[in-house]
Specification:
single chain; three-stranded antiparallel β-sheet
């Protein structure tokens, strides 16, 4: 099964999709973009915050805009365009304003716009800060990513981005081990993984980096706990995005 099918991405429907969380956002963005490019689609990959400058083999063109510019071009089909404001001295692609992305979506220059809407400093799990996520209003789907390799790790800044805030949101303490219940609390909290979504955005949870059968079973258990909490999640997917071994759970 194609990855895009797991997230109910239609081949004949334009969409803006935002990706939040930690534990594989950039990999997820480019796996989706590559599948869509193979279907002859025009795909824009961008960020509203910052992302590490992607390798050149992942895309066809890089466009850097300042706040006074706009992106106008009849891009070829089967193309991935990466858009940012500039490249920082830390080799990060700095993001564009979410309103600019809403305008681009309405101008129909691209079939799909994929947005990294927060940062995680390469940690497998995180809490959103007061200023994030920055999700464009035209986002129709939001994919929340959590690395299953965070399970049984200590809640501290080595393993969790914004550990102190994470502990507040999940009613845990610094130094506690991350359990399935804590991950569930992060997902269902109004201040957690899916904080600040546009009203009409669907929610998909990706329990990523589940490379072993034991981790898949743990992901299934987390999915069960979330559904038992009567929280609407439009799809829960588990497995390895990097190795393209994913299934609904």
């Amino acid at each position: 099964m194609r990855i895009i099918k797991l997230f109910d991405i239609k081949e004949n429907k334009r969409e803006m999709i935002s990706i939040v969380g930690g534990g594989g956002k950039t990999t997820t963005v480019f796996k989706l973009a590559n599948e869509l490019r193979a279907l002859d689609k025009r795909v824009l990959v961008t960020t509203t915050t910052a992302m590490y400058n992607p390798s050149k083999e992942l895309y066809n063109s890089l466009v850097l805009l300042d706040k006074h510019q706009k992106i106008y071009k009849d891009w070829s089909k089967g193309t991935i365009i990466v858009l940012g404001r500039c490249i920082s001295v830390e080799n990060k692609l700095l993001g564009v304003d979410s309103n600019v992305l809403d305008e681009l979506y309405n101008e129909k220059l691209f079939d799909y716009i994929l947005v990294e809407a927060d940062g995680s400093k390469k940690k497998p799990i995180k809490a959103p800060g007061s200023h994030e996520p920055v999700i464009p209003s035209q986002t129709s789907k939001t994919i929340g990513v959590i690395g299953m390799d965070s399970l049984e790790k200590s809640i501290d800044e080595n393993n969790v981005h914004r550990a102190e805030l994470f502990s507040q949101i999940t009613n845990s303490r610094i130094g506690d081990l991350i359990t399935k219940d804590i991950i569930c609390r992060l997902v269902i909290s109004k201040d957690g993984l899916f904080k600040g979504l546009p009203l009409n955005s669907k929610k998909y949870l990706l329990l990523n980096k589940a490379d072993r059968e034991e981790q898949i079973e743990q992901a299934k258990s987390i999915a069960y706990m979330i559904r038992k909490a009567n929280i609407i999640i439009d799809g829960i997917i588990a497995g390895s995005m990097k190795n393209e071994r994913l299934n609904m759970v």
